[in-house]
Amino acid sequence: VLLVVLDTTRADRLGVNGYGPETTPHLDAFAEQAVRFERAYSTSSWTVAAHGSLFTGMLPVTHGATQENLRLDDELRTLSEYLSASGYQTAAFTNNSWISQVTLLSQGFDTVVPLWKERAARVPANAHPTNRSVLDWLEKYDGARPWFAFINYVEPHWPYTAPQEYRARFADSEHSLRVRKRAGFPAINWYLGGRRASPEVLRARIGLYDAEVAYLDAVLGALFDELRERSQFDDTLIIVTSDHGENLGERRHQGHSFTLYDSTLRIPLLIRRPGGASAAVRTDPVQLTDVFATVLAAVGSEVDDPRVTGRDLLQGPLPEERPVVAEYYEPRTFIGRFPDTPKARAAVAPFRRRLRSIQVGSEKLIWGSDGRHELYETSLDPGELDNRIERDPERARALEMQLATILAGLERDVSDPQPPLSEMDPEAIERLRELGYVP
Ligand SMILES: [Zn+2]
């Protein structure tokens, strides 16, 4: 079993999902032999909460790894722990330092390769340190037991620094060096600077992001080629997804903090059965929690925990009216990074809150703990620009009730809250700084 997370990759960047520029030729080819989910959603817009769901099949309210509690409880039984119990050799290859012992998201793997420590050098796709590391591990594989490998590639996450060849294709030819340099700003500067940039800078930023997606597509294509050469591709269940998307100027947001719009919730999801059998396109609403359930069903492992909301996706489509739920907790670590000035405090004041969202069919409610709720009709308004909350208060109330009922049944006490950042591994803190999370 190979589970690949393309950290921070938006669903709409895949060619096979309708994107114009040639970003993902390898994933598009892969999709021809896979079940492709057009409406796949994360359970949060943030790495820790989303991976918590991927590894437990539970919503953040249950697994508890959120912005307000930066770790996954040891007591929870994770995907790798289930697979170990089923006889699998398990390994995690992680380029994101949030997926580490700091958060306990790496719990349960026999082998954890902290690639974030050597910080992805921008090298040709076929020499990517992650691929080398995965292949080295497979070299040592004895063949006696099946294997499960989890990979987190982090390229589309800011900073957008794809190799020159990819930047040339997506950004350099259209924009001057001065514009490209300005386009690489950290999200924090955006919020401090009044959330404005020229249209040209914003376009260049999109080009820089797309270049990262294209580069990562080539990296993944190279890994698949290597697996084919080793006869490890065709008999493997391969899942490619993401943990969340990225705002690229929509509704004047950048990065993936502060929002639960579809620009950060919609993710790619491709599942290739061994042999590439029964390829299909699915339009039923699915979530990261379902990946957990699908993998375990595929290996014949029983899950009897009622807190697991994920469902086996290969059993067939789920109901169209199935609620899609996501949560965002108060981003204390990120906000703590802003300078302590009146101007900065004013800039982040609207974002000191929790968010929850529920989508049923094409109606979506975003609930804010400060009372600022939003209601959208996503089939008519995919950009979530026309907030109908004042016009349709009854529908909003019904969705709010449904959301509250779902979450009330799943909430779990977090008795042992997060360690302060000062107790974390200094190397991990350094990597989090590079990702823009800590000062
Ligand atoms: Zn992430």
In words, what does this structure look like?
This protein has about 450 residues and is α/β, with parallel strands linked by helices. The protein has helices spanning about 25-30, 45-55, 60-65, 80-85, 130-140, 165-170, 175-185, 185-190, 200-230, 260-265, 290-300, 330-335, 340-350, 395-410, 425-435; strands at about 1-5, 35, 40, 90-95, 110-115, 145-155, 240, 245-250, 255, 270, 280, 285, 325-330, 355-360, 365-370, 375. Strands 5-4-6-1-7-10-2-11 form an eight-stranded mixed sheet, with helices on both faces. The protein has a four-stranded antiparallel sheet with strand order 13-14-15-16, with helices on one face. The chain has a two-stranded parallel sheet with strand order 3-12. The protein starts with a strand and ends in a 5-residue tail after the last helix. The mean pLDDT is about 95. The structure holds zinc ion.
Please specify the SSE layout and strand pairing:
Layout lengths: L1 E5 L18 H7 L3 E3 L2 E2 L5 H10 L3 H4 L15 H7 L3 E6 L16 E4 L14 H11 L7 E7 L10 H9 L4 H7 L3 H6 L6 H31 L8 E4 L5 E2 L5 E2 L6 H4 L3 E4 L7 E3 L3 E2 H11 L25 E5 L3 H4 L6 H7 L6 E6 L2 E6 L5 E4 L15 H16 L17 H9 L5
Parallel strand pairs: 1-6, 1-7, 2-11, 3-12, 4-5, 4-6
Antiparallel strand pairs: 2-10, 7-10, 8-9, 13-14, 14-15, 15-16
Bound molecules: zinc ion.
